[in-house]
Write a structure and sequence with these properties.
- The protein is an alpha/beta fold.
- The chain has four domains: 145 residues, 3-Layer(aba) Sandwich (Rossmann fold); 52 residues; 84 residues, no CATH class; 61 residues, no CATH class.
- Helices cover 56% and strands 8% of the residues.
- The chain contains 17 helices and seven strands.
- It has a five-stranded parallel sheet, with helices on both faces.
- Strand 2, helix 4 and strand 3 form a beta-alpha-beta unit.
- Helix 10 packs across helix 13 and helix 11 runs antiparallel to helix 12.
């Protein structure tokens, strides 16, 4: 039997998630409010819902979102389940797992789900790794969102010790700690790794661990930085470099922060840019750690408190604006070269003189002909 199944939490007291998050989960179910529980793989989203159902003596009807491909499927599977009362329990929870897959269903299916949410008296919970796909926006707006964060290393370590104690297997703590760290917050992966290394043994003396590399997309990293205050380790999961992160933060800061918080955040951003320039000019790569801290903790701590609001983020426009400027300036440089050749001055001086000569050239067809200017070049003047 899988240890993940054997040792899954039976009550909320056994779940290694923030008590405030679990309290929100319970409150939403009791109030029958539609809910999206989201977080990385293996952090306890589904097991927490089953543990809560045990506490409340509720039945769980679990449906995988991959089965909900169109309006008819949604009506047949969810519609019926949401209207029927539990025969043997005090209540029922309708669990739609992996809502991320709903991004692939047709619009009629999404509309039907929303309609069922409004009519049913059964609490509906949806789980997702990332619920912020634009195709899920209509469903997301009708739901309360609760994020389950990665489980801390020592929380995972405690669970691994408890499992080995019940299995009667010995293992040095440093090896268990290695499993916990390697899991990167994924409790399910940690338990699976432990079971693989414990098969047929009474004592674990060495480990076989597959490399597990988890990267976060830029949108999830930005939400963490802008909404949380404790952002330790978020930069380690980044799927873009710090130069690109700086541009993303610069573009989206005014949408997230106001007043003094905005000023403090831009101060941290400007310091990161200074260190970035020093690295580029002097190759002082040891300064990279300051850039990381300023772009993560520096921005996160600029706000007075945490938030759970959702904003759409835009890619940084500075590079695009710079490209447009260069394109416009390129035509001006071509005109300056032609002018320099005819009046025997440098191209740089001709660029400066265009500020004053541009109007005269634009209004004089003979000069335009002499310089062999194109229509685009004349319009640029």
């Amino acid at each position: 039997m899988s240890w993940v199944e054997k040792y899954k939490p039976r009550t909320l007291k056994e779940v290694k998630i923030s008590p405030s998050k679990l309290s929100q989960l319970k409150q939403s179910v009791l109030e029958k409010k539609p809910l999206i529980v989201h977080g990385n793989t293996g952090v306890g989203k589904t097991s927490s819902i089953y543990a809560l159902a045990n506490d409340l003596n509720y039945e769980v009807v679990e449906i995988n979102a991959t089965d909900l491909r169109n309006k008819n499927n949604v009506n047949f599977i969810i519609g019926h389940a949401s209207q029927q009362k539990s025969l043997f329990k005090e209540g029922k929870i309708l669990l739609i797992d992996e809502i991320d897959a709903l991004a692939g269903i047709d619009r009629g299916g999404a509309t039907t789900i929303l309609s069922i949410m409004k009519k049913t008296s059964t609490p509906i919970i949806l789980t997702a790794n990332n619920p912020y796909n634009s195709k899920l926006s209509s469903i997301r707006r009708k739901c309360r969102l609760i994020e389950f964060e990665d489980i801390e290393v020592y929380g995972i370590l405690e669970i691994l010790k408890k499992i080995l104690n019940q299995e009667g297997i010995n293992c040095k703590e440093n090896l268990l700690l290695e499993i916990a760290k390697q899991s990167k917050g994924d409790l399910r992966a940690a338990i699976n790794d432990l079971q693989v290394n414990a098969i047929g043994k009474k004592e674990i003396n060495d480990l076989y661990l597959s490399e597990r590399e988890k990267k976060e997309d830029i949108f999830k990293v930005l939400r963490t930085i802008f909404n949380k205050r404790n952002v330790n380790g978020v930069a380690d999961k980044l799927d873009v470099d710090y130069d690109e992160l700086l541009l993303w933060i610069e573009e989206n800061l005014p949408r997230e922060y106001k007043g003094e918080a905005l000023a403090t955040a831009f101060n941290a951003l400007s310091k990161a840019d200074i260190f970035r320039s020093r690295i580029r000019k002097r190759q002082y790569w040891r300064l990279l750690v300051y850039i990381r801290d300023l772009l993560t903790s520096g921005i996160a701590l600029a706000k007075p408190h945490e938030s759970d609001k959702f904003n759409s983020y835009k890619r940084g426009q500075r590079i695009l604006k710079y490209w447009i400027y260069k394109q416009k300036n390129a035509k001006k440089k071509e005109i300056a070269k032609k002018l320099a050749k005819h009046i025997h001055i440098s191209s740089n001086k001709a660029m400066n003189e265009l500020k004053y000569l541009g109007i005269a050239i634009k209004n004089n067809r003979e000069i335009q002909k002499e310089l062999e200017l194109s229509t685009d070049e004349i319009n640029r003047l």
